[in-house]
Each structure stands twice: as structure tokens, then as C-alpha cells.
Amino acid sequence: LFFSSVSLGQYSLNAELGIGGITPGYNDFIVNTCSAASFTAGITVLTPVTSNNELGAALYFQRYNYQNQSAGGLFTDPGPMTYEDCSYIFLAPAVEFWRRHDISLGLQPSIGLLLSGNENTEGNNTSDNIDKLVFQFNFVFRERTYISDAWELTVSENVGYNFGGITRTAVDPGTPLYPIFLSLRVGALHRHD
Which of 42, 69, 74, 137 could in theory staple to 60 by disulfide, Cβ–Cβ 3.0 to 4.6 A? Predict the structure, then answer.
């Protein structure tokens, strides 16, 4: 009875492109961070479980392009400047757990694999400090606009928190950067019944 209104052949495919950037994320330090707008893209496949819930999988790409520096304190100078440019591909189970009309909320606990990365600290190549594997918890807020029975326009706002950091070059060596990645994506959703 729980699945009575859903056929097994129903699914939706959503492809999106957008821009994103990071916010600072140190635990105990004040950090000056400047993030450039970076490219992000994703594909999500979902199948309905109930009229308001969908389950599936997501594959998405994020590029991190930023510089950061410890701000220093009353009696200390600012720390070293680090420039970072790296890209990750993420794979995640996807859950849209709340949907009202054309708005939905979702979660994507993700694992990311480093595709490319360059890091420079005070003129020294510190790229070996970039984490090859990262974990991210992604919150998705998606709006849908009806185009036809099979197509919808989507706009999604994503907030991704990286557990374990993305680099070990920080204010103190070995203290990871835990950035929050914010992005805005626009795309198309195709529904298959």
C-alpha cells in the first residue's frame, strides 16, 4: 500500500550547471579567505518512493579556487598566504525528503575524488597537502518550473560541508581547512513514466 501509487518504471533525470565558491572553515582560527566563483555541475537520478519523497543517486563536479591566510592577532603577524585550485568529482546517494508543489529539500552524503589540484604557499609547491579523498554532506534546495509533462526547468541552491578538510596546509601545519561550498545551479529535469 505504501508504494501503490508509484510504478517501478518512473524516474527523473536532472542535469545542472552553475557557479559556486567557499566560505572559510577553520575550527579555532580567524582566517581571511577570498574565493573566486568556480564552475560546478551535477546529474541526479531520482525515483519516487511516495508523493513527497524520492530516492536515487547524484554525480557532481566542484572546483575550489581560493586563497586564504590566518588573520593574526593583537600580538602576532598574519600567517602564510596559500593559493588553492583543485577539482573533485563526487558520488552520492540522493534523497529528496520534503516536497511542496514545485519546491523540494534534499540530502546528499557524498564521497569526492580529487581530479586535479595545485596549491602554493608563500611560493612553495604544497600540492601534496591536498586531500585525495574528501567527504561532503550536501543540502539541496531545488525549485522546479513546469515546461511540459516530461520537462521541468530547475534552479537549485546547494550547501556542502566538507568533513575532514580538503587540504592540510593551514594556519598550523596539519590543521585542515573545512570549507563550506555554496553553489547556484540551473538545469533541466526530464521525467520518464
Answer: 42
Single-letter amino acid, residue 159: V
Which letter, b or e, does each residue of 95-120 get, where b requires 16 or more Cβ atoms within 10 Å of its Cβ? Answer: bbeebeeeebebebebebeeeebebb
* Overall pTM surpassing 0.90 (yes/no): no
Grid cell, residue 25, equals: 572553515
Which positions ≥6 away from 107 have C-beta within 8 Å? 94, 95, 97, 137, 138, 139, 140
Give the integer Cα–Cα distance in Å for 23 and 180. Answer: 5
CA 89 from chain center: how many Å? 10
- pLDDT tens, position by position, 47-89: 999 888 899 999 999 998 887 776 655 666 666 777 889 999 9
Q: How many CA atoms lie within 13 A of 151 on its CB side?
A: 5
